[in-house]
Amino acid sequence: MNKFRLFAILLLVGFIANAQEKKWTLQECVEYALEHNISVKQSELDVEAAEIDKKDAIGKLLPAINGSASNSWNTGLTQNVTTGVLQNQTTRNFSAGVTASITLFDGLSNYKQVQRAKMSKLAAQYSLDKMEDDITLAIANSYLQVLFAKQDLEVLKSQNEVTLEQLERTGQLVDAGSLPRGDLLEIQATNADEKQRIIIAQNNIRISLISLAQTLLIKDYENFDIVEDDYDIFGTEILDNSVYDIIERAKEERSEIRIAEANKEIAEQNVKIARGAYLPTLGAFINYNTRETGANRIEYVNPPGTTVTEIGYVESTGEKVVTETQNPAIPTVLSPRPFIDQLWLNDGISYGFQLSVPIFNGFSVRNQVKRSKVNVRRAEYQLEQAELDLEANVYQAYVDATGAFEAYEAALVAAESQEKAYEYATERFGVGLTNAFDFSQSKVRYENAQREVIRTKYDYIFKLKVLELYFGVPVANLRF
Prior knowledge:
Blueprint: H1 2-20, H2 26-36, H3 38-59, E1 64-79, E2 86-105, H4 109-175, H5 181-215, H6 243-253, H7 255-275, E3 281-293, E4 297-301, E5 306-313, E6 320-326, E7 330-334, H8 339-345, E8 348-356, H9 364-430, H10 436-470
Antiparallel strand pairs: 1-2, 2-3, 3-8, 4-7, 5-6
């Protein structure tokens, strides 16, 4: 038993350690966000609600079947539910019925409602697609910010290692009298400054990771970390397209335009639905009903035999004239018929048509049509505005991506030049031809050039992905 407990504890510790060491890839972050992000969930609920609305609209095309039943106790002058006669009674009455109805014509309103519901679901799906695109870009941006912060820290640490080597060597040369103590102090100051920047860089990584974790709705900030991949630049050929080609492609592919177009179609459909109220409505129905009562029933029973009654005489002969009639019926109180028997005996069917013709309704239909037309114009303006906004956003994204690419290339050239200058300064400092201040300045410029390469690289990657989304590249196909 003790061995088993020890094994279980070691297994649990190993599992916890493995969980704490898990590092998230960009793809995992995006997939997790799309599954757990609240805004995405709300958009998914909008799609589900639109699907329910569509089923409601389809249901209005089908017959409606409703059943009813009632059971009541009556005292005093009430109507006998089986005979229809008013009588003083204390009794129980039961009735039941089933009615089926269907709308045969309503100005095609129900059919147009189905079409509108389909458009609404499509608009909700477009909104979900846009939300997923926005979340993906937000996650990618936060992820790249963490990568930049991590690589920035690596540059600072690498440069500080060089500084520590120079500090040790300079200290030896100062002790030997080959260099003045001022050079040692200068490098010590440089080392202190680099240590401070390393601490700031470490804090930036922590802040960037917390920001990404919050976006993902992950609460375990302490153990959250990402895979430190060096992402390459893919798909630069998109910049070979003109900005106008990208704008036209975006108008065909982007959800912003699709949403505005769907809303315009919905508004136009609402006009058709409103106009349908001008037309008559024709419906059909059929009803089956039956009834039963607990009241005693009265039946009139004719007793056997006849009664002879003298009605006159013959004047010439004096002979009596008589008539013979059946004895009058005697009312007899009987107990109610059985429940099932009454239901079969008292049932009935009614059926027919219902026609409703709108004549005057206080201008409500006309005003609704006008209101729907106003909404169409509003949707047209929103579509026009969406196209203008998209053009501006695509143009800005194109300029940003182009500028970021140029900045990245310039940063590479500058870094190469600063590297050569730093190597030259290192050689001169090693033979005492330059002082520690000039050497430190050369080292700082080289360090800044390296950091600028990293910054411009990730800035270009992100802005390139924004442009690719506008060009219609699906989120799943974005390469990092």
